[in-house]
Amino acid sequence: MSVVTGEDTICAIATAIGEGGIGIIRISGPEAITIADTLFNSKSGKKAVTIPSHQVVYGNIVDPNSQETVDEVILFVMRGPRSYTREDVVEIHCHGGPVPLKRILALTLQQGARLAEPGEFTKRAFLNGRLDLAQAEAVIDIIRAKTDASLRVAVGNLSGKLSEQIKDLRHAILGMIAQLEAAIDFPEEDIEETAAAEVARLITRVSSRLDVLLATAQTGKILRDGLATVIIGKPNVGKSSLLNALLRENRAIVTDIPGTTRDIIEEYVNIRGVPLKIIDTAGIRDTADTVEKIGVERAKELVGQADLILLLLDSSSPLSPEDRAVLALLPGRKAIVLINKSDLPPRLEMDEVGQYTQGRLVMKISVAQEEGLAELEEAIADMVYSGQVAQGEAAFVNNVRHAAALRQARDRLSDAMATIEAGMPTDCIVVDIRSAWEKLGEVTGETVGDDILDQIFTQFCIGK
């Protein structure tokens, strides 16, 4: 964004497009209250400019040119710095139809406001010191949360759980820099060797704390974005039935005819708080059908992109060439092998299956009888959390940008440790440690460039 916060007044519709009980137009900036005053006629005769902060007043929005009443509204005034952006903010709560919202927004623009860019309200909150960058990014995570677990992680980060840990780590690193620079500034004291030894001890401690945070990164990313899960198997093995069972609705067509599923079906499902982006694929087999062949090739591509594979085999039939072709896709992939139709007389040779599934979880289920599904859900949740503390009780790294910055900070500390062990000059150690301090500052926004800020806030919706 090229606009500097505070120089002008911005406005936007802050509620989702469509029909609803209430719609909100948000205005922020030095002229927010003045603009509202030109449009708002209160039933009590109050002028908007005289309304105390954080009071709600009932009235009408009136077109100042035609004197036409546009809608019956509630006006909410929040004077800076006690507002989301720390500027003067006005919210106009009107009826939630697209026409009144657009009419009122147009009037605010006519009175001198400009349309807010994506994320500009939150960017102003960050630039004005109300939120740090990690907290600002948590706002969009709350909006996009797919499960209660996702929401708890996002709310925890908005409240500052991650930011507090980052700030503590930066403070510890700053202490290291101070010790080393003192040794450089006072060479007559002959404390360089002692300072380097103390800094090495502190590097070990900080690196361990970074490792603890990074251990949550994979789980945090899954809770934020979802676990990309692909269901694969030969035709008519029960893939679509499993999708329907996990969704608890008939989303996919199920028949006894092999090859019913030709296209890719993708849905989100909540499994013990884990958002699964679950994908039902075409049955993998050789086929002359052009459409089905495309579906089979797409299924194979998705296997390579998946976080988790649910591979189905049929307990009631021997292992077929099609099954072997599916099992051959497993090497290097995280997978759970599901032996479906376990309620039927078994004909599958488990010893032969074991040749393909060594070290992998193999579970017997019956989708038709709803047997083993609860155990499958538990296994998926255990795989995601991997024994970590339950979400909401600690900081989670759920952002790829944050994880990258933490890894780079840890690498710079490793470089500093190598520099110490090599007996190199103290100022060389300081360079690596200061780089680690700056990398951690990128998480909270203290050392981040404008280009990164623009990239982050353009991901937000307009009005937030």
Quick recap:
The protein is an alpha/beta fold. The protein has helices at 32-39, 98-110, 120-127, 133-144, 148-158, 161-185, 192-214, 217-225, 239-247, 290-305, 321-327, 350-354, 373-385, 400-421, 426-444, 450-457, and strands at residues 10-13, 20-28, 40-42, 55-62, 69-78, 89-96, 114-115, 227-232, 265-271, 274-280, 308-314, 335-340, 361-364. It folds into three domains: 10-130, 2-Layer Sandwich (Gyrase A, domain 2); 138-216 and 396-445, tRNA modification GTPase MnmE domain 2 (Four Helix Bundle (Hemerythrin (Met), subunit A), Up-down Bundle); 227-385, Rossmann fold, CATH 3.40.50.
Structure description:
There is one protein chain. The protein is α/β, with parallel strands linked by helices. The protein folds into 3 domains: 10-130, 2-Layer Sandwich (Gyrase A, domain 2), CATH 3.30.1360; 138-216 and 396-445, Four Helix Bundle (Hemerythrin (Met), subunit A) (Up-down Bundle); 227-385, 3-Layer(aba) Sandwich (Rossmann fold). The protein contains 16 helices and 13 strands. It has helices at residues 32-39, 98-110, 120-127, 133-144, 148-158, 161-185, 192-214, 217-225, 239-247, 290-305, 321-327, 350-354, 373-385, 400-421, 426-444, 450-457, and strands at residues 10-13, 20-28, 40-42, 55-62, 69-78, 89-96, 114-115, 227-232, 265-271, 274-280, 308-314, 335-340, 361-364. It has a 7-stranded mixed β-sheet. Strands 9-10-8-11-12-13 form a 6-stranded mixed β-sheet, with helices on both faces. Helix 6 (161-185) packs antiparallel against helix 15 (426-444) and helix 14 packs antiparallel against helix 15. The longest helix has 25 residues, at 161-185. It is flat and about 85 Å long. It starts with 9 loop residues before the first strand and ends in a 7-residue tail after the last helix.
